[in-house]
Amino acid sequence: MKCPECDADLEVPDDVISGEIVSCQDCGMDYEVIMKEDGKVEFRPAEIEGEDWGE
Amino acid sequence: MNEIGLVYDRIRWEEKALIDASRKTGLKVRPLDAKEMYINTLEDPNKIKEGFGQVVIQRCVSYFRGLHLTATLESAGLPVINSFGVSLMCGNKLFATLALVRAGLPVPRTSVAFAEEGAFKALENLGYPVVMKPVVGSWGRLIALIKDKDSAQALIESRKEMRNALLQIYYLQEYVERPPRDIRIMVIGKEVVAASYRYSPLEDWRTNVARGGTSKPCPITHELEDLALKASEAVGSGVLAVDCMESPNKILVHEVNNTVEFKGLFFATRVDIAKKIVEYAIEVAKS
After folding, report:
1. What's the CA gap between B104 and B110, in Å, rounded?
2. Domain B3-89 -> CATH class
């Protein structure tokens, strides 16, 4: 898969699941992995940390 | 009991561990992305329940998203971990402190002010240095160590400029002289399951793992166990992390965390926290 931002190859772990974040090693952009019901994988720009994020 | 819902908005190490633990326990687990869902409040509650399993572990990293979702699911009759009441209490540092004070637990001296004028009076009363924290927020974000009046003025002015209503509530706490660490105690239901020391990284006084803090195992003494159970009970019980500081005189409870990140604690203690959370969820579903 290619980084939609800079076109570098995205390294995606084999055991990745929907909702995980992968980062582009080249440009640093974070993507959320979305696995569709039809088996297709989509990379959506990850949400930016909000002021209410945490534990 | 055969199905569990895990609501998330981002899959971290903890969510993967919970999914694995649920499967190993023989449960069918439904990972559900909060960002993708909507709930019709007039829908038949039984229909709402069908989509979530018999019990829901709510793991949103966004506090307000998780809180509102929990309210909606509980209203449909679903048991949610943690409950709305516990989430509301623990997600706000002031509400949690008030609950701890009501329960008679030792906490750092804490004042609250509702505007700039009161904040300066509170700072003078506490005496510098003072720690100022946002009432809602985590990972050490915007926590400031205020050493004198000049810094206080600058910080309060910047908060006013942020135009955020919650930042106009000034939660101010004495700076407790302590070793460069705090203690995190994990409580699940009525059991203290693990504890760790969290050491501040070099060049930071905050101990949050999110800020580079490191975890080391901490023995669970009777004192820690007692404090943690009382603190957990004070906020309503659930899956909670009680954070304590070793002041020169006694141990003080300074926070109770709600959607606990337990990766650091797991690697420090090797206690299977995810499994214990799932077992607790099963218990809650049965009760």
Report:
1. 14
2. alpha beta
Q: Are B134 and B167 in contact (CB under 8 A)?
A: yes
Does any domain span residue A54? no
Asked if B9's CB is within 8 angstroms of A18's CB, the reply is no
On whether the pTM is more than 0.80, the answer is yes
Q: Which residues of A touch B31 (CB under 8 A)?
A: 17-19
Structural domain count, chain A? 1
- Domain B177-282 is found in CATH 3.30.470.20: yes
Residue A51 and residue B134: Cβ atoms within 8 Å? yes
| Mean pLDDT, range B111-128, rounded to an integer | 98
Q: Which residues 6+ apart lie within 8 Å of B98 measured at CB?
A: none
Which tokens in the block code for residue B212? 């580079």
Answer yes or no: do B141 and A51 touch at CB < 8 A.
Answer: yes
Pairing label, strands A41-45, B130-133? unpaired
Nearest CA in chain B to A55: B259
Helix (H, G, I), strand (E, B) or coil at B16: helix
- Alpha carbon distance B258, B120 (integer Å): 30
Are B62 and A53 within 8 A, CB to CB? Answer: yes
Helix axes B13-24, B273-286, angle to 10 degrees: 60
Amino acid at B130: V
Domain of residue A19, residue span: 1-48
Average pLDDT over residues B198-206: 85
User: What is the value of ipTM here, to two decimals?
Assistant: 0.89
pLDDT at B213: 84
CA–CA dist A24, B256 (Å, integer): 35
> Does B110-174 carry CATH code 3.10.490.10?
no
The residue behind tokens 């329960």 is B103
**Is A2 inside any structural domain?**
yes
Element (H, E) at B48: helix B45-50
Q: How far is A53 from chain B (nearest CA, A)?
A: 4
Does pLDDT of B210 surpass 80? no
